[in-house]
From TrEMBL:
SUPFAM superfamilies noted in UniProt: Xylose isomerase-like (SSF51658)
Protein name: 2-keto-myo-inositol dehydratase
Signal peptide: none
Matches recorded under Gene3D superfamilies: Divalent-metal-dependent TIM barrel enzymes
Domain Xylose isomerase-like TIM barrel: 36-297
InterPro entries found in the cross-reference section: IolE/XylAMocC-like, Xyl_isomerase-like_sf, Xyl_isomerase-like_TIM-brl
Length: 302
């Protein structure tokens, strides 16, 4: 038994990302049925959908596959480029609506919204400028508010914006700027502890300062030695992942017990979904890591 206080407001799960899944279809990735089998075997009751099309998109089929393994879904995920302005709304909504409909059909409550990368996530090739203009930032904030209202009104889901390396929502400055510029009634934050640390942020400080905006957690750690080299040589995120910058807890930063304690102190129910970016990875690598990580989180009271 753990001596750690019970974190009874934290609902722990895992995601396809922890099995090396970044795309809907890639022969180097773990097949979806193996992911479902292994995430259940590792002891996680909650999962995310991952990239749309990776898991079955027929709601009846997906519900049956989940029920067979006693799994439930916490969220779906979408990538958006709302900083490009109203011209991209129709295309964005067409994609978001598909994901949101499936998310709602499996009784999940959240939609994780990841801003578009300014570098290709695999090759690292720069596709946009790394900083937004004032007009682009205004479009991003307005677009996220519009998306939050539409997703809430049509599907009954809440959006949580995910700060991410190699996107325009990354550092403390950019994250807090976005929070200050958006309506808390329709835009919350998915705090990914690993990405925030990767970009120099302090997760505990953010939770303590903007606790009312923390709607969801991704639990992740970075290897500080690899990160220092990545930053020094301006290595893009995809190649950095292949170097192992995202590492197995508790070997990296930030320390997760203080993060979990700060989240528990908010007094609200929060999903805390484990993600360890490992794309691509050998097929037998994820399960042992997932089992060890689950035991570690249990020792923390989660």
């Amino acid at each position: 038994m753990s001596d750690a206080p019970a974190l009874d407001r934290i609902r722990v799960g895992s995601a396809p990302d922890s099995w090396g899944v970044w795309f809907a279809d890639d022969p180097r990735q773990t097949p979806w049925h193996r992911f479902l089998d292994e995430v259940a075997e590792a002891g996680y009751p909650w999962i995310e959908l991952g990239p749309y099309g990776y898991l079955p998109t027929d709601p009846a089929v997906l519900r049956d596959e989940l029920a067979r393994r006693d799994l439930r879904v916490s969220a779906g995920t979408v990538f958006t480029a709302l900083h490009r302005g109203p011209a991209v709304w129709d295309e964005t909504w067409a994609h978001v609506a598909k994901v949101a409909a499936l998310t709602r059909a499996v009784d999940a409550s959240h939609l994780v919204v990841i801003p578009e990368f300014w570098r290709d996530p695999v090759t690292g090739e720069r596709t946009e400028e790394p900083a937004l203009t004032a007009g682009q930032f205004a479009d991003l904030a307005a677009g996220l508010e519009r998306l939050g209202r539409a997703v809430r009104d049509e599907f009954g889901l809440g959006i949580v914006v995910h700060p991410h390396a190699d996107t325009h929502v990354d550092t403390e400055e950019n994250v807090t700027r976005l929070l200050d510029a958006t309506d808390p009634a329709v835009v919350d934050l998915c705090l990914d502890t690993g990405h925030y640390a990767y970009c120099g942020g302090d997760s505990v400080k953010l939770i303590e300062t903007y606790g009312e905006r923390i709607g969801y957690l991704h639990l992740k750690q970075v290897d500080p030695a690899i990160l220092a080299d990545v930053i020094a040589h301006e290595v893009p995120f995809g190649p950095a992942v292949q170097r192992g910058v995202m590492c197995e807890p508790p070997t990296g930063v930030p320390e997760l017990p203080p993060v979990l304690a700060a989240a528990q102190a908010l007094g609200t129910d929060l999903f805390a979904i484990v993600e360890q970016d490992m794309y691509p990875c050998p097929p037998d690598q994820p399960l042992p890591i997932a089992e060890r990580t689950r035991r570690f989180l249990s020792s923390c009271g989660a």
